[in-house]
Amino acid sequence: MAHLTLKTMNINPSFAGTLESGDIRISLLPSEAPGLTINLESSVEYQFGDQIRKVIRETLEELGVENAVVDATDKGALDCTIRARVTAAAVRATGKDVWKD
Q1: pLDDT at 9
Q2: Angle between helices 79-94 and 45-62 in degrees, nearest 10
Q3: Which residues, in sequence order, are CB contacts of 23 under 8 Å at separation 6+?
Q4: Strands 36-42 and 68-74
Q5: Is pLDDT of 15 > 50?
Q6: Is this model's pTM higher than 0.85 or not?
Q7: Nearest residue to 59 via CA among 32, 31, 28, 101
Q8: Alpha helices (runs of H) in 24-76, residue ranges in sequence order
Q9: 42-65 residue pLDDT tens
C-alpha cells in the first residue's frame, strides 16, 4: 500500500461505511490541531473501544495521516472492515489512490 503524506495536503471532509449491523461509518475531517482525534460511538465501546481506536489510529498512521478528526460510529465491525473503511475515507479525503504507484 502506498504511503500518503496528508500533513502537507489539503484534505476534504469524507466518509465511508454505513450504519448497518457489522459495519462502521468513518467520517474524516481536517484538523487545525496537530495529531489525530478519534471520537467513537459504539454499543461495544466498553469491551472493544480501545481496539477499535487502535485499528483506526494504526491505519491512518500507515497511510501517513497525521492531522485529522475521525468520527466513528461502530455497529459491530471487525478489524478488517474498520481498516477498509478508514482507508476508503482517507482516499476520498485526499483524492490519492493508495492502490496505485
Answers
A1: 53
A2: 40
A3: 17, 75, 76, 77, 81, 85
A4: parallel
A5: yes
A6: yes
A7: 28
A8: 45-62
A9: 999 999 999 999 999 999 999 888
